[in-house]
Specification:
mainly alpha, globular, single chain, 10 helices, about 75% helix
Length: about 250
């Protein structure tokens, strides 16, 4: 294997592990891309493959754990679509205005701020908002989800923070964040797909798909199964340390 192959194995493991836990997959991948300056152009085919593999891992996890039963789909379909509207609106504005705010400093700051918000949302005294209407609850989480457009904040963290503030337990908050991830990852996949100029299947493409899929599926199982026991504190500590290291070094 070449150094490039090993790089994409590392890239795929990071993508798979960070996509569904509250530490920001895009932030970690941005760090990799900014540090490895020889990566002068984004490879949309590789990015699209990583998103597709993550999406398949998510769908398989939800299906195998019976979260795709008809009753779940019926109850959550409209709220999930409603929650996606704010992100589509904000994303459209960002793309239209060609806004690019990716920098290591911003990632470091948002990593710390997002970690602190996750910590406080996990405390019972902050969980005082009572919203009984499921659609409104998901819409509010969808508005929080827009924070993920800031590099390093994390889509899953923003959703979990919202649901925890609304009084949902850790596991339910994490599951709901996965539901909200389906349309967002799909949109990301499709938006990258339309930018592909050619399709060339190489060994790196195979590596990215397989490694991302496996690491994402394993992470999903571990994260959801143990989150009620371990709490979000380890992720909070990691985010704050990562942010301090980034700000200290770069």
């Amino acid at each position: 294997m070449t150094n490039e192959n090993f790089f994409y194995i590392f890239y795929s493991i990071i993508q798979g592990i960070t996509e569904f836990i509250p530490i920001s997959s895009s932030g970690h991948l941005n760090i990799i891309e900014l540090i490895f300056v020889n990566l002068e152009e984004r490879n949309f085919l590789y990015e699209t493959t990583a998103h597709f593999a993550s999406l398949l891992a998510l769908l398989l996890y939800l299906y195998k754990n019976k979260y795709f039963e008809f009753s779940n789909i019926r109850v959550n379909f409209f709220p999930v679509i409603l929650a996606t509207i704010p992100a589509v609106f904000v994303g459209y504005i960002i793309v239209s205005l060609k806004i690019n705010i990716i920098s290591l400093k911003i990632i470091g700051i948002t990593s710390i701020i997002g970690g602190l918000m996750l910590y406080f949302s996990d405390m019972k005294q902050f969980q005082r908002l009572e919203v009984k209407n499921r659609a409104i609850k998901f819409f509010l989480a969808g508005m929080f989800q827009c924070l993920a457009f800031i590099p390093g904040f994390s889509r899953s963290a923003s959703c979990i923070i919202a649901f925890r503030l609304l009084g949902e337990e850790r596991k339910i908050s994490s599951i709901y964040s996965l539901y909200l991830g389906i349309p967002i990852i799909t949109i990301s996949f499709l938006s990258n797909f339309k930018d592909l100029k050619n399709m060339v299947i190489d060994i790196n493409l195979v590596i990215i798909f397989i490694v991302t899929f496996i690491s994402a599926y394993i992470t999903l199982n571990l994260f959801i199964n143990f989150i009620n026991r371990i709490s979000f504190t380890p992720f909070v500590i990691y985010r704050i340390l990562l942010g301090l290291i980034i700000l200290g070094i770069f």
